[in-house]
Design brief:
mainly alpha; 2 helices; rod-shaped
């Protein structure tokens, strides 16, 4: 497992502390790891969709060029 160091704005750090203190997470580390996993999962799908749309657009342009 890798370790990274991040700096957070005080207001965001306070929000994370509040979530931990409320019992939603065991630690800020757990909260941040989960947030990063969800961010990656969400954007991986969006990026895959973007690539698929670009591939379809390219194929349609190729088809039009051949038909001309």
């Amino acid at each position: 497992m890798q370790s990274i160091h991040i700096e957070l704005p005080d207001t965001l750090a306070a929000e994370l502390d509040a979530l931990v203190q409320a019992g939603w997470f065991r630690s800020k580390n757990e909260l941040i790891c989960l947030a990063l996993v969800e961010f990656a999962r969400h954007h991986r799908v969006a990026l895959a969709e973007q690539f698929q749309q670009e591939d379809i657009a390219w194929a349609l342009r190729q088809k039009e060029a051949i038909q001309e």
